[in-house]
Amino acid sequence: MREELLTARLSLRPPVPDDVDAIFAVHSDPATCLHNPSDALSGRAEAVELFKRWDAHWHRYGYGYWVVRRRDADHPLGFCGTKLMELGGMAVLNLFYRFEAASWGHGVASEAVTAVVEWVTERVPDLPVIARVRPANTASQRVATRAGLARAGHLDVPGEDGLDWIYAKNLPT
Ligand SMILES: CC(C)(COP(=O)(O)OP(=O)(O)OC[C@H]1O[C@@H](n2cnc3c(N)ncnc32)[C@H](O)[C@@H]1OP(=O)(O)O)[C@@H](O)C(=O)NCCC(=O)NCCS
Fold first, then answer.
1. Which helix (DSSP H) or strand (DSSP E) does residue 47 occupy?
2. Pocket of ligand 1 (CB under 6 A)
3. DSSP letter at 14?
4. pTM higher than 0.85
5. Which end of the chain has fewer CB atoms surrounding its CB within 10 Å, N or C?
6. Can you name the residues that pair with 4 across neighbouring β-strands?
7. 5-126 topology per CATH
8. Which residue, by CA, sits nearest to atom 46 of ligand 1?
9. For ligand 1, atom 16, which residue shows the shortest CA distance?
């Protein structure tokens, strides 16, 4: 289905090969990977591989990570979406968001992430949505909360960069 999402200010579209440079730019800035250094990319070839993984997820499941830009501009501000994974033996949609530092502080992440969470809640209602957030990443915690996720401390897990706090929506009862 590879659907485009529109919000008041933003367009979210599935990634295309031309997005590799933006993927590399956003993931090679130490500021954007401050809390998750294991996500940092050190060469463009790694961005090509990341794009291929994102694209394969779209082809397999019909959703994935979107490229976010302002509706009146072509320049990608960042990326946001969900990926199917396991958490504690449970299938979940892992929420991801990362935006270029120049865009921070204007509600872009809240607007994009809220649209993504609404979309997957409607289209993939059987799976919980979770976010794995480092304890010091206050901005990310605010974004997850604004998008409707709530702290689920009982699911906290060690992640690649240390303890991940779990935020969740639509957990099984
Ligand atoms: C986290 C991130 C997505 C936030 O993007 P953003 O567009 O600046 O977010 P918003 O403008 O929508 O702000 C969301 C909230 O965070 C708050 N916030 C933003 N930057 C903050 C900071 N440095 N410290 C504390 N709070 C901050 C805002 O005030 C806002 O709070 P509110 O909901 O109470 O109004 C962005 O900083 C980013 O891409 N960081 C690097 C990647 C990352 O950490 N991703 C998450 C991994 S779990």
1. helix 44-61
2. 32, 35-36, 78, 97-99, 103-110, 131, 133, 137-140, 142-143, 146
3. -
4. yes
5. C
6. none
7. Aminopeptidase (3.40.630)
8. 140
9. 139
Nearest residue (by CA) to ligand 1, atom 31, is 142
Å from CA of 97 to ligand 1 middle:
10
Among 32, 15, 8, smallest CA distance to 102 is for 32
| Beta-carbon contacts of residue 170 (< 8 Å; ≥ 6 apart) | 121, 125, 127, 128, 129
Q: List, for residues 98-141, the tens digit of each pLDDT value.
A: 999 999 999 999 999 999 999 999 999 999 999 999 999 999 99
Q: What is the Cα–Cα distance from 115 to 7, expressed in whole angstroms?
A: 7
Return d(Cα 5, Cα 150) in angstroms, integer.
Answer: 24
Please check whether residue 168 is in contact with residue 155, taking contact to mean a CB–CB distance below 8 angstroms: yes
Instruction: Delimit the domains of the chain by residue range.
Output: 5-126
Kindly give the distance from the C-alpha atom of residue 110 to the centroid of ligand 1, in angstroms, as a whole number: 8
